[in-house]
Design a protein that fits this description.
The protein is of the alpha+beta class and 225 residues long. The chain is built from 7 helices and 7 strands.
Length: 225
Amino acid sequence: MSLYLPRHFEATDRQMALDLMRSHPLGSLVSNDDDGFPFVTHVPLHLEERGEALVLHGHCARPNPHWQYLQARPQALVTFMGPQAYLSPKVYPDLVRVPTWNYLAVHCQVQARLLHAPEPKDRLLKKLIRDHDPAYEAQWRGLQADYQQRMLGGIVAFELEVVRLQCKVKMNQHRPEAFAGMRAAYAQQGDTGQALLRWMDRLGMGAPAPESAAPGGEAGHGTAG
């Protein structure tokens, strides 16, 4: 697993990576297909901490060949993309600047284990339901057993053990002269801007945003690489 990661954009606080993965759970699962070409499935994932170990739980449709690629080649990559936005050079107090793109991302090298039996698949589905629609769990439990079995038979579940974790927080944090302009710009950009303002607060990038401008939630000069 390789990620261009300049030191000033590397997040060494593990909790930042975990918060990003939980607040943006739609991961991109990347494996090689039988011809050696990257194959991607976008899938919601449940993050579980087992002591220091991290495990991602997910599933794909049985007709999706990705589970077969995981079975043949268990090592894979999962990426998560957090809030991101274009950054105009107008945020700087001078004109000798260029545009960039700010973003937060997590890359996980993983080792896959497939789950074929109905019971572990049902447990995995309940974890995802509790993450995104806990009220639906009672409805799922109330469905007829034969219908549940058909639905479970239509998916292949997997556990992805994280063997290497990288977190990139590219927030222009090495350009303090831009912080005031960034805050003013992001304050005008709706939910995405508010999310980025909260990350600026968390990173100590200038004066914290007032609560009215950045309610709860998740808490560059040059190219966007």
